[in-house]
Amino acid sequence: MFAFDDEQFLDGYRKRFGPLRDDLAQAVRFLIGRIERDASFSVDPVHRHQIAYCLATFKWETAHTLRPIDEFGDDARFERLYGPDTRIGKALGNSKRGDGARYHGRGYVQLTGRANYERAGKFLGIDLVGKPEDAKRPEIAYAIAMQGMKQGWFTGKKLDHYFKPGQLPNYEEARRIINGQDKAQTIADIARRFDELLANALE
C-alpha cells in the first residue's frame, strides 16, 4: 500500500492549486489517509496514475471542496430529471414516485438512481436504498467512488481501460469513466498535477 508524507503533500497542493483553508486541508488529509489504507492499490506507477485521476475527478465533481456533496437542485428538479416516468429515471431503476429526488446524486462522484444505490449498498453491506443520505458520509462516498471507477458503475468505462502497465496514462480519455468528454482536458491537467504531488510525497 502507499504511504505519503502528509505535510509534503499539502505543501505541494498549495504550490499547484493555491491556498488551503482548514476545511480543505482536513478533506485532503482524509482522502490521503483512506488511500493509504486502501489495500486494492499497490505501490505501482499505474495505481498512482489511477489515484491521481480519481483525486482530480473528486476535486472537479465536488466543486473543488474535496468533500462529498449533493447534486445541485431541488426535489422538483430531480423528479423532472429522474422520475420513474422519464427515460433516464427508468434506466436508473427509479420505479416509485419520489425516487428521482430520493436517489439524486450524492458523493465525491454523483451516485444517482435507485439501482445504483442498491448495487453500492450490496457491495458495502449497508442499506443505501433505505438510507440514501448515507452515500454522502465521507468513508462511504470514498468506497463508492473508488469502486465505481474501478468497476465501471457510472458509464461502463473503468480505470483499467485507460491506465495500463507499459503504457502512458490516458488522462484525457479517462473522463469517459464519469461523463463522456465533458471538461476532459481540464480534469486531465488536474490529474497530472496530482500525480506530481503523489510522486513527490511518497515515503
Automatic annotation (TrEMBL):
<protein>
    <submittedName>
        <fullName>Glycoside hydrolase family 19 protein</fullName>
    </submittedName>
</protein>
<keyword id="KW-0378">Hydrolase</keyword>
<dbReference type="GO" id="GO:0016787">
    <property type="term" value="F:hydrolase activity"/>
</dbReference>
<dbReference type="InterPro" id="IPR023346">
    <property type="entry name" value="Lysozyme-like_dom_sf"/>
</dbReference>
<dbReference type="InterPro" id="IPR000726">
    <property type="entry name" value="Glyco_hydro_19_cat"/>
</dbReference>
<feature type="domain" description="Glycoside hydrolase family 19 catalytic">
    <location>
        <begin position="95"/>
        <end position="145"/>
    </location>
</feature>
<dbReference type="Pfam" id="PF00182">
    <property type="entry name" value="Glyco_hydro_19"/>
</dbReference>
